[in-house]
Amino acid sequence: MNRIQYNDKNKIFHLRAKDVSYIIQVYREGYLGHIYWGKEVNAYHGSFPLRFADRAFSPNPDKDDRTFSLDTMPREYPAYGNTDFRTPAIQLMMPDGDHITDFRYKSHRIVKGKPALEGLPHTYVEEPEEAETLVITMKDSLHPIEMDLMYTVYADWPVVVRSVKLYNNMSESLKIQRIDSFNIDYRSRDFKLLHLPGAWGREREVDIQTLHQGVFNIESRRGASSHQHNPFFALLSQNATEDTGDVYGFSYVYSGSFLGQVEVDSFRNTRVHMGLNPFNFEWLLGAGEAFQSPEAVMVYSDRGIGHMSRAFHGLYRKRLIRGTYREKVRPILINNWEATYFSFDEDKLLALADRASSVGIELFVLDDGWFGKRDDDKTSLGDWFVNEEKLPNGLAGLVKEVNEKELSFGIWVEPEMVSVESDLYKEHSDWCLHVGGRRTSESRNQLVLDFSRDEVCIAIEKMLMEVLASAPIEYVKWDMNRHMTEAYSAALPKDRKKETMHRYILGLYGIMERLTAAFPDILFESCSGGGGRFDPGMLYYMPQTWTSDDTDAVERLKIQYGTSIVYPIISMGSHVSDIPNHQVHRKTPMAMRADVAMAGNLGYELDLTKVEADELQAISKQVKRYKEWRHIVQLGDFYRLISPFESNDTSWMFISDDRMEVLVFYYKKLAYPQESFVQLKLKGLSKDRLYMTSEGDVYGGDELMNIGIPIPVLEGDFKSCHIHLKKI
Ligand code: DGJ
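That is the input. Now the predicted structure with DGJ docked in place:
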């Protein structure tokens, strides 16, 4: 089947992803109109034509037609300056100061598969049949400037992937002031907006709001995708729920500053787009040069938010994440951070490793504090050599001992940073982001290295390669603990200073690409003070992310629920930690902490040498259980049942890839008098098959979905239970 068809008569493109149609029309003198994106139709016969009327104060490019205005046209990729007053997707400044652009259709081509985006993270195909790509070339009506609008449709997912490449064919440079990766103009404002705002320690809260006339921004200006906003939003039809209604999701495959906008205009239309944040971005594009935007993934679901999430999960798990760990279950780890913070020595670590090994944990992770003279967060970032006072036998000696305890070994690094108190800073004080003559602001006592500079990237990459080659290291936690200020590169000329943040991200991606290629068997986990850079860009290089520094079980229900709106469960690191919890000081039972952490990539982050014997035994049982279940959690399908944002209870479930096993988790936050009995309806089962619990009770799939399963009475606060079912 040809997924992309072009009808030369009416100049209509009909693109088809799984269950989805996307329709574009070349209109009048080459304007690109957006016709439709939604549930698949066999063929489009023109039922939703572009319609115009004479609208006051919407000017007309053609003086003989007072009805036609770009201001009222649903457009594919709007520019600024010739009758459309809404926010444009692209803004350019010509060498003579002209900042108007007027792109018109020039040509198109359709290719099998999906071209790679050089130097940028991107979704991919393994076989050309998996997708088809439409490239529409647009040309400015005055200058020899062109752009390729790229649309890829996937056969197995309801997904359209978009990006833009701009070509400067003039003999002088132009300035890119804004370049979004996509634009959609809906002929309606009948939506709600779902996005994932937050803060450090409470990342990705589910926020659903009404649209109003005006512009709503979802953005980061911080040089990282951030805890504050995630590069994602969705429009929901007014009646949409977790399982019903139309949902349009937009996810930006990028890790730096971004801007997503939802604009409702005076005609009750809605425009949405997302791209590099123009607040602190500009790019000088030389004569004959091209600029590739990052890509955006758009999912349409006719079955509510849940179906959208499963499409993102499937695509990101199978065609964004790469490498050895793409389809491999992840090791259960112990991390020493909350167990010891900076105060440890080899003996302490080995005692912890001993305990971890005795309960069946598989990976020992040495967190911050192993290098330079780092006994607190004031020194040594940049000095990536072992602290021999703490580790007299070096990393190699420590790893050998850890390996002898049948644990693999992993290590923490924060390569993008430098402490003022460090050898690296003494030698290269100009390697950080700064503006000559101005004070450079610190955050957590550290400065950001200027990864827009090749020499900085080369030096840091070399140090990292040496560390990773110095011992059999099988896991790396890559941290990033502050945002950018004075974000200008000393190495860039004055007309390129606003390129710094994007060049930084390109430099970072370059290092990650080479490092992960050099060490293909290492499992990399990205982190930024927890989940401050939980985005698809990072997942392309590092297949899991430390979801949040907040390890409290109750808070984690919301954080993991919100994260699951876009990101696959296998990408979420989730640890059992000590009580009182170090972030919110709450005491929750070990059983609930484990049930929450087991609904992600399980790890432990507490001092196992100090836990009581009965707790150690409980941990040992959890580890054993998780080894039996982790393929369901990590490689299966995920269904949300009860939202912690709407209820005292939370529930979610997993169905294994072969659909034979089901794992349900139910959590109750606070007890209340005269509690009602809970009957939980499951989702996604085979309605004509039977399922058996571990206790031997047998239920029909339809029965479990329509009538539900009884949840045992759970007395007291912070309680949870899990149910494992097998299809028979
Ligand atoms: C922030 C991370 O999120 C923590 O898990 C820990 O690695 C610290 N940094 C170490 O400084």
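Residues 613-635 form the longest helix (23 residues).
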